[in-house]
Specification:
The chain is α/β, with parallel strands linked by helices. The protein folds into 2 domains: 265 residues, 3-Layer(aba) Sandwich (Aldehyde Dehydrogenase, Chain A, domain 1); 184 residues, Aldehyde Dehydrogenase, Chain A, domain 2, CATH 3.40.309. Helices cover 37% and strands 21% of the residues. It has a 7-stranded mixed sheet with strand order 14-15-16-13-12-18-19, with helices on both faces. It has a 5-stranded parallel sheet with strand order 9-8-7-10-11, sandwiched between helices. Strands 5-6-21 form a 3-stranded antiparallel sheet. It is globular, with a radius of gyration of 24 Å. The termini are far apart.
């Protein structure tokens, strides 16, 4: 066998080892005997180097015209396009999602990079008449400084691209800390940016674990913005760490998303949506549909068909074209899922299928769990309230639309929701009343497009949005500019009274 590939951090335009010299292994979750690579286990000193490089690079990068910054991103998008298949295969190997989904992950990075490249010529401000004569008024966007980007493992290239590209096009510099489970996809993204011509120090990659890398990065005094995607528990710590120095902070955290199925729904379509929403990416999505609220008139039929589809899913190595659901990311996540399954049983939910680790053959080398459906769930049960982040779906019967909306809004999260109905009135009522940042009609709770804002309400986030032009509002500051060419002192409201 060939020796394992050894990867490095990217700091100030150079690929370098961590200062402490320590490393960690990146393993294939479908086959723990497969060592994907060895990555630097960095520490606070590496963060200092990266932030210092980003701070120095910001002085010149902020002055590069935004259209010229966009040209670099455009070249990066073309490189991502050319390498899409290779990048997707490497992603499946390190993360486990099926190859078709990995291709979609890379495509989302491509789409975001092209989109933000175009924003180099569209960072429009406003011009507006002044209330005083011989005075001109306008607004312009200004960059902020060094952006710390902390990304999760479930979308290991798409989410880093969501954060990097708007930060860069606005003129900020970046220190990216990827999840320790999936550093290779972030490495590949940064390598593409380097090849596309990003200047030294503008983009920096530091691999490692949260306490040694993420925490000092968030607290670093020269970091001006922090964008974090991950758990609510860690998100609170990030918010608290940023509050003392008033860092700009964007938090994207958990979800307990719901699909509502009305009695007039196309049940075949609704089942397809529930399967994709619940078991796509092995349920490891913040937008996963882990709750399905079904009208009692069609509940039994829906449950029977959903269980049949779940039991028929082919679980295995994501690189196998026949596989429909891959492994969980690691053993710790598998243990979490198994613990919640036991909680569901103890709470009195009816286990309709799954509920166990898969064993035997290839399953013994990976972290595989059976697609799991609980029926007759009370909406107050923990399995219907708490994010599990695994292939577990809770079915909840409802009496009518008002009851369904009440159940749907009964959780602390507010990311995504969906309704299946043929009644336009029901669709619009749910659209209005669901407390989520994303809403779907006759489609599942996942599938964000890069030109629309992404984010949620309540404890899903702190009010900011990713993607689209909404992201520019986080990565830039508005500056109001007044030019008085009257040749005399004019005192706004005083002289205009």
């Amino acid at each position: 066998m060939a020796p394992p590939r050894i990867y490095k951090n990217f700091i100030d335009g150079e690929w370098v080892d961590s200062l402490c010299g320590q490393t960690f292994e990146n393993l294939n979750p479908a086959n723990r005997d497969d060592l994907v690579g060895i990555f630097p286990k960095s520490g606070p000193d590496d963060i200092d180097r990266a932030v210092n490089a980003a701070r120095e690079a910001y002085k010149s990068w902020r002055l590069v015209p935004a259209p010229k910054r966009g040209e670099i991103l455009f070249r990066a998008a073309r490189l991502l396009q050319e390498r899409k298949e290779t990048l997707a295969q490497q992603m499946t190997r390190e993360m486990g999602k099926v190859l078709e989904e990995a291709r979609g992950d890379v495509q989302e990075a491509i789409d975001m990079t092209f989109y933000m490249a175009g924003e180099g010529r569209r960072q429009f401000g406003q011009t507006t008449p002044s209330e005083l004569p011989n005075k001109f008024c306008m607004t312009v966007r200004s960059p902020i400084g060094v952006a710390a980007l902390i990304t999760p493992w479930n979308f290991p290239m798409a989410i880093p691209a969501w954060k990097c590209m708007p930060a860069l096009i606005c003129g900020n510099t970046v220190v990216l800390k990827p999840a320790e489970d999936t550093p290779l996809s972030a490495y590949n993204l940064v390598q593409v940016l380097e090849e596309a011509g990003i200047p030294r120090g503008v983009v920096n990659l530091v691999c490692g674990f949260g306490p040694e890398v993420g925490a000092p990065l968030v607290r670093h005094p020269d970091v001006r913005l922090v964008s974090f995607t991950g758990s609510g528990e860690v998100g609170r710590d990030v918010a608290a760490a940023c509050a003392s120095s008033f860092k700009h902070t964007c938090l994207e955290m958990g979800g307990k998303n719901v699909i509502i199925v009305m009695d007039d729904a196309n049940l075949d379509l609704a089942v397809d949506g529930a399967v994709w929403g619940g078991f796509g990416t092995t349920g490891q999505r913040c937008t996963a549909a882990s709750r399905v609220v079904v009208h009692k008139k069609v509940y039994k039929e829906f449950a029977e068909v959903l269980v049949a589809h779940a039991e028929a899913l082919r679980v295995g190595d994501g690189l196998d074209p026949a596989t429909q659901m891959g492994p969980l990311i690691n053993e710790a996540q598998l243990a979490t899922v198994d613990r919640y399954v036991q909680i569901g049983k103890d709470e009195g939910a009816k286990l309709l299928c799954g509920g166990k680790r898969l064993t035997g053959g290839l399953y013994d080398r990976g972290s595989f769990y059976a697609p799991t459906v609980f029926g007759d769930c009370d909406p107050r049960m923990r399995i219907a309230q708490e994010e599990i982040f695994g292939p577990v779906v809770s079915l909840i019967p409802c009496d009518d639309l008002d009851h369904a909306i009440e159940i749907g809004n009964s959780v602390i999260y507010g990311l995504s929701s969906a309704i299946y109905t043929q009644d336009v009135s029901k669709a619009f009522r749910a659209m209005r009343d669901m407390e989520t940042g994303i809403f779907y009609v006759n489609a599942s709770t996942i599938g964000a497009e890069t030109h629309l804002p992404f984010g949620g309400m309540k404890q899903t986030g702190n009010g900011h949005r990713e993607a689209a032009t909404a992201a520019l509002d986080f990565y830039s500051e508005w500056k109001s500019v007044y030019v008085d060419f009257s040749g005399k002192l004019q005192r706004a409201q005083i002289d205009n009274a």
